[in-house]
Amino acid sequence: MVTIPTPRCPHCRHFLSLDKLVCPECGGELGYHPRLRQFVGLLKGKAVVGDETWYACSNRGWQCNWLVRDDAPSGRCFSCRLTRTTPESSDTVALEKLAKTEEAKRRLVLQLGDLGLPIRSWHDGPGGLGFDLLSSLSEGRRVTIGHANGIISLDLAESLDDRREALRIKLGEPYRTMLGHLRHEIGHYYQNVLITDEQTWAQCRALFGDERTSYRDAISRHYREGAPDGWAETHISEYATMHPWEDFAETFAHYLHITGTLQTAAAIGMTLDGDAYANRDSDVEPLANYADQPVHRLVGDWRWMSHAFNRVNRSMGMGDLYPFEIVPGVVRKLAFIHDIVTRSPQPPQEQEIVALTAVEVDD
Asked: Hey, which end of the chain has fewer CB within 10 Å, N or C?
């Protein structure tokens, strides 16, 4: 794992969010350097970093601010090359929705890199990671959000706040975002990538259940009967009760929610005063990464920080930032996720080699 610098404008040092193409403070043109995790200044779409030349991603017109090294096999950045299917180029309405979804995907890809998780692109063969980003509104047909053999399908229509909120209410969910969808579906992908031996599969089944049971029957039962009584004592969400696959993916998504938000809190120097807020002997200081920490440190920090975040949200008249309870049964599942993630990291150098050499089959 790596320490992530706070993103700032290279011209005026103004703090920036990760989606910026131009600094709102000084107007400087920006590109995001995926290896350095920093913004660099662009001149005519190009930046020289050390002895390397980097160019703006060819999807910059659709709001991608990532850079591409000059010897990469495509004018598209690594995140954009992971996208297998997009709407037709003439469908400008759908492409506008695509821009927001790709922004969430870039944030996901950065976090996977921060955690050292391996990414093998769909270009490299069956089972590689890829994204089919489709629009049910444009195509006039249902788009099922899901994962199959490394390919994650998303409905771009859910980038519309009113549509996504309507579905959240209809399904009785406390939380629904595009980044949440991505983190859930990537959990399905990594269950098969990170669990490679029978002993680990046995541990996984002891916690989450046997994923070999009928998924079709589980879906039917879930939407007919709902979650079983007492589900909150063992699962992070009602949806997690549907099938062991979904329990693993939901728990994996929450692991990403927790580690990603704590990393941001650490990056901006946020701490909680133990005396003033937490009634503790020590302050709560979130870490940039928890690779060498037990899961109880991770969950403990998150409990206090999420409680504070929830209070801030309520002060603005909004719902809780994190409307979930982490009970002991869920902590045990998070511990399993923490273990398989932190014992199989890929060095940043290897991640970069994969990102720069993934060849597109259609080039």
From this structure: C
Q: What is the pLDDT of residue 174?
A: 79
Distance between CA atoms of 188 and 250, rounded to whole angstroms?
9
DSSP for residue 272: B
The answer to whether the CB of 175 falls within 8 A of the CB of 240 is no
Q: Are 257 and 183 in contact (CB under 8 A)?
A: yes
The answer to whether the predicted template modeling score (pTM) of the entire model surpasses 0.90 is yes
Residue 50 makes CB contacts below 8 A (sequence gap 6+) with: none
pLDDT of residue 346: 63
Question: How distant, in Å, are the alpha carbons of 86, 221, 240, 241, 242 from that of 227?
Answer: 35, 9, 9, 6, 7
* Long-range contacts of the stretch 159-166 (C-beta < 8 A, 24+): 159/97, 159/100, 159/101, 160/97
List, in sequence order, every residue forming a beta bridge with 56; answer none if it has no partner.
67
Note the pLDDT of residue 348. Answer: 53
